[in-house]
Design a protein that fits this description.
Blueprint: H1 2-6, H2 19-38, H3 41-56, H4 65-107, H5 123-142
């Protein structure tokens, strides 16, 4: 059911969607597929093979500055591009996790709905909330009891 409502906007005809939406959706799909492919053992093996080939060709190029520049440039470009792919994937995963947790908070009776959208709070507000939870944890540790009703000694 969640997929039906979430994909309504994506199912709009292309003529109704602006270029930003189209590019954003295309990048999202590209980033998801790339993260699966580039996060695999095969991608690591391919990267290790490239380094091995580069090392083997060193003597043929007399370990020149150009030979070193090739690997430095290649790794810099790949790293630069990977930062954006990784960040996009992590942002989406974090947002999905927040939404799932928000739904659990909303669905559980007695849960504080103020905890929904915690990521929007300031650092000071988060610090106050953290201190509140620390006090609650200490309180619960002090009032723990055995199943027979006898209090458990706190450490």
């Amino acid at each position: 059911m969640a997929n039906k409502t979430g994909s309504k906007a994506a199912k709009k005809p292309e003529s109704e969607r602006d270029i930003f939406c189209v590019v954003s959706d295309a990048f999202r799909c590209f980033a998801q597929h790339s993260s699966v492919l580039l996060g695999s053992a095969w991608a690591f093996c391919a990267a290790a093979l490239v380094i091995l080939v580069w090392l083997i060709t060193g003597p043929a190029f007399h370990f020149s500055d150009t030979w070193q520049l090739i690997i430095n440039t290649a790794t810099t470009v790949v790293t630069f591009l990977m930062v954006f792919l990784i960040q996009n994937t992590q942002n989406r995963d974090a947002k999905a996790m927040h939404l799932k947790l928000d739904e659990l908070i909303r669905a559980i009776k007695g849960a504080r709905n103020q905890l929904v959208d915690l990521e929007e709070l300031s650092d000071d507000e988060l610090k106050k909330l953290e201190e509140q939870f620390r006090r609650l944890r200490k309180q619960s540790e002090n009032t723990r009891t055995h199943s027979n009703g006898q209090p458990v000694k706190s450490r």
